[in-house]
Amino acid sequence: KLASREFHPENTVIEIGDVRIGGGELVVMGGPCAVESAEQIDEIARLVKAAGGQVLRGGAFKPRTGPYSFQGVGVEGLIMMAEAGKKHGLLTITEVMTPEYVDICAEYADILQVGTRNMQNFDLLRKLGEVRKPVLLKRGFSATYDELLNAAEYILAGGNKDVMLCERGIRTFEGYTRNTLDLSAIPVLQQLSHLPVISDPSHGTGRRELVEPMTRASVAAGADGLIIEMHTDPDNSMTGDGVQSLFPDQFARLLRELEQLAPII
Ligand code: PEP
Ligand code: MN
What we know:
This protein is an alpha/beta fold. The protein is built from nine helices and ten strands. Helix 1 runs parallel beside helix 9, helix 4 crosses helix 5 and helix 8 runs parallel beside helix 9. The radius of gyration is 17 Å and the shape is globular. It binds phosphoenolpyruvate and manganese (II) ion. Phosphoenolpyruvate (PEP) binds next to loops. Manganese (II) ion (MN) binds next to loops.
C-alpha cells in the first residue's frame, strides 16, 4: 500500500513555502474552531504568528452535530482567512466537507482538512486525490488505525502524495473528557506509515486545562506537529469549542515551553 512504511521507507516530508512537515521540526497550527469575522481571524493570526506558530487554522465550513447550530460563514470565511494568513505570514488550513467545495477551498487555503466525521467520505477523499494541495486527514472518532490508513490510501491512490494523519481523540466509555486522545496512535502510525502525524489535543480532550499537558505528551510521543484551538474570547465563540480553546497568553506560553522541550526530546 502507498501509505505503508514498507512501500516507502523514508519519512514523507511535506514542504509548503519554507515550512517542512515531517522533517523533524515541530509544526504548530493554531487558531479558532471557526472563522467568525475578518477582525477576529486577523487578530488571532497576529497572535499565532507572534507566538511562533506556522499555520493558521479556522473552519469556514463547520460540520456541526445538529443542523440548527452555526454552520460557519462559508466562502467569505475562506477569503478572510486567506487575507489574514497572507498579512501575517502564516500558512492556512481549513476543513472541506464535500467534493464540490474542494476546488474553492484549495484556491484559498494552503492545507485542506478532512474532519473526523468525514474520514470515510470516499467521494471527498477521491476528489482530494486529484488536487495538488496537502491534506490533513483526521482520524474518525471510532476508526481503527487500519481504517485511517485506508482512508489516506484513497487520497494517495489519486496521485496526491502530501497527506498527513491527525490523531484527534476517539470515543471511549470515559465521559469526563470529550474524547480520549490516543497517544499510542502517534508512534503506531509512524511505524506503519511514512506520513507525518499531527496531534490535536484540543478535540482530543475537549478541555482547555488538558491541552497543555497533552501537547507535551504528544511531543514526547513523537508528533510531527500540533493543531491547537485558540480564541481571543473563548466564552463567546460561535461554536461549542470555546471550552477547549486556549486563551492567547496560554497559547504563547505553551509554544515557548515547546521550544525548550522539542530539542531535548
Ligand atoms: C475542528 O478542527 O474544528 C473539527 C471540527 O475537528 P474534528 O473533525 O476533529 O471534530
Ligand atoms: Mn473545533
